[in-house]
Structures are given as C-alpha cells and as structure tokens.
Amino acid sequence: MTISEGDTFTCLTTENQRLRVRLAEIDAPERKQPYGAEAKQALAEMIFEKQVVLDVQDVDRYGRTIARAYVGGRDVNYLLVEQGAAWASAKQLKDHRLKDAETLARNMDKGLWQLPAESIVPPWEWRYAGRISMPEKVKPGRTASFSQFGGG
Predict the structure, then answer these.
(1) How many domains does one find in the chain?
(2) How confident is the model at residue 133 (pLDDT cuts 50, 70, 90)?
(3) Annotation says 64 is catalytic
(4) Which of 5, 25, 30, 82 is catalytic?
(5) For 47-97, how does the pLDDT look when each residue is reduced to its tens digit (9 = 90+)?
(6) Angle at 6 between CA 125 and CA 70, to 5 degrees
(7) Under 8 Å between Cβ of 26 and 81
C-alpha cells in the first residue's frame, strides 16, 4: 500500500490488482500545503498494512476509484474529518455527518484547525491559487511548429 496524500492511496485488491483510491466526500490538504504531511500520516496510521473495505462510488477523470473506506468497520473518511485531517467536500457531500464532524473538529481546534488562520486554506482554493500563479506551459501531447532558417 502506498499513501500519496491524506485522501489518496494505492492498494492491492483481493485479486492482486493495483487500485488507486481517492476518498469520497472529503478533501485533505495537498502535500506541500500546511498540514499536508500530517494528513498523509493520519491516513497512513488508519490504513497502512490493514485490510481496507471499500464502498466504491465512482471513478474520476484520472482513473482513481472514488470510495468510502472502512477498517475494522470504522469509517476512515469520517475519522479523517473528525480528527481535523480533512475537510468535508461540499461539492461531493452526500453524508452530512461529515460536515458536522468538520464543525466539531473546527470548534475543538483539532488537527489543521489549530493552525494560524492564514494557514487554513481549503485544498480546492490552494489548488486554484497554484493554477493561476503558474506560467503557461506547453502541455504534453501538444505540438509546436518551428521554422528553420538557413544562413547564407
């Protein structure tokens, strides 16, 4: 099992196939974002070298399996939000208990909620800020044409 971020991991299925999983309905801080390493560690402590049961909901545009994860009957997605290691994702939210868990974690200054206010940036805003500040690049798969001029 490999933990990429606080809400993404790769595991082996019972058929020994690699499966990349993005936890549904939550969004953890990005790797380089404040509390990103701690969120990754929180997920690792819950699932590493354990049997994880997935309630698959979808497959995203990156080919990741979107799922709720359970270890020993405990809801990993919920626990991450409850500990302050992730936000309830308003865009995907189906289980409103997640929003209640986020409010409780915030009110109790758990996890990322104990950071200075300016460091508490939702991951979707962090990603957007990164996109608008990055210079335009030639994207993979695009072609560029150049003219070659010979000298005399």
Answers:
(1) 1
(2) low
(3) yes
(4) 30
(5) 999 999 999 999 999 999 999 999 999 999 999 999 999 999 988 789 999
(6) 125
(7) yes
